[in-house]
Amino acid sequence: MTCTYDSHRAEVAARLAPLLAHVRANAAESLHIADPELATRVTAREITAHLPIPAFTNSQMDGYAVRAVDLAHASADHPVTLPLGYAAAAGDPQLWHAPGSATPVMTGAPIPRGADTVVPVELTVGGQFPKLMRAPRENASIESFVEAATGPISMVALQAAIDAPAELTQSTSQPVDTATYQALPSGSATFHAPSPEGRFVRKAGEDLAAGAVVAAAGAALTPTMIGALAASGITQVPVRRRLRVLVCSTGDELAHPGESHNAAHIPDANGPMLAALLRRYGAEVDLTIVPDSPRQLADRLRVHAGLADLIVTMGGISAGAFEVVRDALEPLGGEFHPVAMQPGGPQGFASITIEGVPDTPVLCFPGNPVSSFLSAELFLAPVLREFAGLRPPAPRTRTLAHDVESPATKHQVRRGLITPEGTVRILPPGSHFVHDLASADVLVHIPVGVSEIAAGTPVETWSFDV
Ligand SMILES: Nc1nc2c(c(=O)[nH]1)N[C@H]1C(S)=C(S)[C@@H](COP(=O)(O)OP(=O)(O)OC[C@H]3O[C@@H](n4cnc5c(N)ncnc54)[C@H](O)[C@@H]3O)O[C@H]1N2
Ligand code: MOO
């Protein structure tokens, strides 16, 4: 029975569904957030934020944190000058803010308690910071800080300010008292406009609240998703393990890489090509080459069945007298049928059963290199992409640079080059043109029933340069 391109694609997905469900349900690993592997994985379950994003309320600008009320009447004619508090940079602990003062804050520094708006430094008179005094860090002693200070410092007021910031900020309606002024470094900033409450203040959790979902189950760990997870305080990421695929090239004509070969031998092109493709889609791949011996092939597949989730064979399935894959797998229940497509016409399925492990599905692809590649790209890759949380490719419409003919009984998948004018030039159809495949930019599907397409006709082109 001949299948259609669409029905075969659906059947591959249906046959692999139980395997994917099993791996989804059973096989989670944990990777560190900085692990280079992470970017090729998918979350194993929903992940919620440990920290809010932003982690704390902080300044969006280098400038002065103030109370909006203190600048409510500032104007060009009536500028308001406020004494400076200690300066805070990103990484400093949160400071207290004395009402009626201006606290220099750098981008990313915590908004000091009691301040509610930030004025960028360039919007103040003079446009630049004067010499600032940075607040003592948690690990710096008050004494060393005082030694470095130039302004009049009251040790008692400074210590009180550091020990009891809440008390100071709660009295926001109170004028600055003498002791507090004594604790402030010297200097002032002059403002000529009001600054509305909340301006240039990045609120804790305004991007994402703590406990909220950062990543759904099955989400691709894209660079941006890794960034969001890191920002939300996640250090270990639960990920699905990779699908393990055995890629098996078959044929007496195949030489192992590096092996000397006689005139009848060819290098194994399909194995490395499919391994590279499937790895791009997140699979862990083992390669093997088996000669045209059905017994050896059956033995090899049984050995790997416990280790691999999926086996892909190439070659040995068409109408020849010595079809190793057919001969090995038909006795084990393998089914082989033609698909009305070109390349990729001969296709097969099998399943290897060994005790104690779930059955291992086998996809049997034809041996011609373009046929093997397109079988993997068009039938297996959609399933792997979905498992890896990757987006399916989207087509782009371009016009044909020339007339194209196609057998009306077959769904043809042609390789195309994009011309400098943006049209598409179709390459020859032969399924042995592996170099043409490597130089192609796009695939063009010509469905069953179409035997000719005229130059200038718009066609869908599919990028496959994964
Ligand atoms: N009488 C018929 N002959 C063929 C038919 C048909 O319908 N009737 N179909 C043709 C089509 S279409 C294809 S595709 C091939 C598929 O044949 P197999 O899957 O049995 O593949 P092989 O015969 O083993 O190999 C085909 C071709 O590809 C080369 N090959 C195989 N493996 C590799 C590899 N790993 N690296 C590089 N090249 C490889 C192999 O040497 C052959 O030249 O059958 C047609 N014949
Ligand atoms: O259909 Mo075969 O896969 O052309 O070469």
TrEMBL record:
<dbReference type="InterPro" id="IPR036135">
    <property type="entry name" value="MoeA_linker/N_sf"/>
</dbReference>
<comment type="similarity">
    <text>Belongs to the MoeA family.</text>
</comment>
<dbReference type="GO" id="GO:0061599">
    <property type="term" value="F:molybdopterin molybdotransferase activity"/>
</dbReference>
<dbReference type="Pfam" id="PF00994">
    <property type="entry name" value="MoCF_biosynth"/>
</dbReference>
<dbReference type="InterPro" id="IPR036688">
    <property type="entry name" value="MoeA_C_domain_IV_sf"/>
</dbReference>
<dbReference type="InterPro" id="IPR038987">
    <property type="entry name" value="MoeA-like"/>
</dbReference>
<dbReference type="Pfam" id="PF03454">
    <property type="entry name" value="MoeA_C"/>
</dbReference>
<comment type="pathway">
    <text>Cofactor biosynthesis; molybdopterin biosynthesis.</text>
</comment>
<dbReference type="InterPro" id="IPR036425">
    <property type="entry name" value="MoaB/Mog-like_dom_sf"/>
</dbReference>
<dbReference type="InterPro" id="IPR005111">
    <property type="entry name" value="MoeA_C_domain_IV"/>
</dbReference>
<keyword id="KW-0460">Magnesium</keyword>
<dbReference type="GO" id="GO:0006777">
    <property type="term" value="P:Mo-molybdopterin cofactor biosynthetic process"/>
</dbReference>
<keyword id="KW-0808">Transferase</keyword>
<protein>
    <recommendedName>
        <fullName>Molybdopterin molybdenumtransferase</fullName>
        <ecNumber>2.10.1.1</ecNumber>
    </recommendedName>
</protein>
<dbReference type="InterPro" id="IPR005110">
    <property type="entry name" value="MoeA_linker/N"/>
</dbReference>
<keyword id="KW-0501">Molybdenum cofactor biosynthesis</keyword>
<dbReference type="InterPro" id="IPR001453">
    <property type="entry name" value="MoaB/Mog_dom"/>
</dbReference>
<feature type="domain" description="MoaB/Mog">
    <location>
        <begin position="246"/>
        <end position="386"/>
    </location>
</feature>
<dbReference type="GO" id="GO:0046872">
    <property type="term" value="F:metal ion binding"/>
</dbReference>
<keyword id="KW-0500">Molybdenum</keyword>
<dbReference type="Pfam" id="PF03453">
    <property type="entry name" value="MoeA_N"/>
</dbReference>
<comment type="function">
    <text>Catalyzes the insertion of molybdate into adenylated molybdopterin with the concomitant release of AMP.</text>
</comment>
<dbReference type="GO" id="GO:0005829">
    <property type="term" value="C:cytosol"/>
</dbReference>
<keyword id="KW-0479">Metal-binding</keyword>
